[in-house]
Amino acid sequence: IDFEGGTLIQFKFEEPTTAGEIRGMINNTALGNAEIQKSGENEFMVRVKDMGVGNEIVEMIKADLSSKTFEVRRIEKVGPKIGKELRGKAYLAVVASLFLILLYISIRFEFRFAVGAVVALFHDVLITLGIFSIFNWEITMPVIAAFLTIVGYSLNDTIVVYDRIRENRHSIRNQALAEIINTSINQSLSRTVITSLTTFVVVLVLVIFGGEVLFGFSSAMLIGVVIGTYSSAFVAAPILIWWNEKYPAPVVKKK
Predict the structure, then answer these.
(1) How far apart are CA 120 and CA 188, in angstroms?
(2) What integer pLDDT is reported at residue 203 of this predicted model?
(3) Domain definitions of the chain by residue range
(4) d(Cα 188, Cα 201) in Å, to the nearest integer?
């Protein structure tokens, strides 16, 4: 609703209720574009693009489901212009962050390192977004903020691995790049796992006790911490090996 505009109403029923009951009632009205999403036990969110129909939906549900007891948990209204503006800013924030990351790592390390890092970040965000889509969870501005936090967190792990690779390339000269990368991952693995585990525990507490307001943000962070931990070692590093094999560095001949 933050990005498309319209009205969102969340209901909490005291008795078991199905989305089909609500959907059947709404489809018999002029509100055929309404979307119904289960958000918890006997909780449902109804989204309608028309901003002016919030009270109308409440009255329709009261009339058609008069045998059930429920409460309206929240009503949100976002204009289409504001929704479009928020969507544009969210896209811009993600693209700008990835571009700046690409630029920074290219300067700090090499361009091929930057490619591996950015692909790994895309991987982290897309998988997290995919899990949200599978469970039909709502994408809100706090969730977008969680995506950007995931990008920063995963990048930190990736840079730790990359820094160890760079050090070992200078100290271990008689091994292939793949062997150096494997050694570097093993050397930094314990640090990565311990750091990620402590973060995971904190975020898990937020998921369990943070309530509905923090659920989207904390769930995205929980997924992102797990995905980002393995992508820094098993996505970014293999891409570096692939890039080195496909575009090998020129050999400087000694005179």
Answers:
(1) 17
(2) 93
(3) 6-78, 84-246
(4) 20
Residue 76 C-alpha from the chain's centroid? 23
CA atoms of 120 and 64, how far apart (whole Å): 49
Length in residues, the chain: 255
Alpha carbon distance 47, 219 (integer Å): 22
203 Cβ contact partners less than 8 Å away, ≥ 6 residues apart: 218, 221, 222, 225
Find the mean pLDDT for residues 104-125. Answer: 88
Residue among 206, 197, 202 at smallest CA distance from 157: 197
Task: Please give the helix or strand (H or E) that residue 142 lies within, else none.
Answer: helix 141-171
Top mean-pLDDT range of 1-10, 203-212, 218-227: 218-227
Nearby residues of 59 by Cβ (< 8 Å), 6 or more positions away: none
| SS3 at position 43 | strand
pTM for this entry: 0.70
237 Cβ contact list (under 8 Å, min separation 6): 116, 161, 165, 181, 184, 185
Q: What is the CATH number of domain 84-246?
A: 1.20.1640.10
Q: Which CATH number fits domain 6-78: 3.90.1150.10, 1.25.40.10, 3.30.70.3400, 2.30.29.30?
A: 3.30.70.3400
